[in-house]
Predict the 3D structure of the following.
Amino acid sequence: MNDVTETRNISDELGANIPFLRRFARAMTGSQQSGDTFAAATLEAILADRSVLDGSDTKTGLFKILYGIWSSAGAPVEEGESGARAKAQKRLASLTNNSREALLLHTIEGFSFSEIAEIIGVDQPEAEGLVSIARQEMADSTAGSVMIIEDEAIIAMDIESIVSDMGHRITGIARTRDEAVELGKSDVPDLILADIQLADNSSGIDAVNDLLAELGNRPVIFITAFPERLLTGDKPEPAFLISKPYSVDQVVSAVSQAMFFSSTETLHS
């Protein structure tokens, strides 16, 4: 393989993984703006010196660089935060070092324990221990009320079961945009968990925008078969995304992470 072909292959691999790098960065910070700032810094580091990827497969190397930048910055709290969001940031700071990040890498991004160990710079048994610790710490977080927007009955019931087993109260299940708004106004949720495509061909994003306009900001998790379409950085996008098909661990982790944060940017379709 010549140098030009190798460079092209690496560039293609980077391009394919950038959306998921954004997802991880946003979940760590709880916001699109902060997450995308860290993702951009990662790409700048690679552009400045491609050799930083040496010794790792492209995806693992990409996340390793991001994690290095994140940890060297001290996992910063955003300036100007106040109210519930500032309290959430303080709770995050009290968690065991590296545990929340290890959990995200394992459950949301699908990295193995050996890959997580390489990304965060620990040995594999410690990586496994960090994920276990994170699960317990997240399980101890405050329970809240969750609204589900999902038009497929089986999926909606499955999500309801998972979230209920976590100790959260389900306010109800909506299948359309209008149902979602009515449900949200009748029983205000602490968190919204929404599919993208709804039964009446309306958009879950539009339903969430309507709800946030009515109820004010609150954490939102989107479930979609095409997460990369909501991770372009071209417009306001969600901080929390779950890919279909999802696992129980992915739902549990995303809900636990999102409950720490009390705001999300309004989305525009």
Q: What stands out?
A: The radius of gyration is 19 Å.
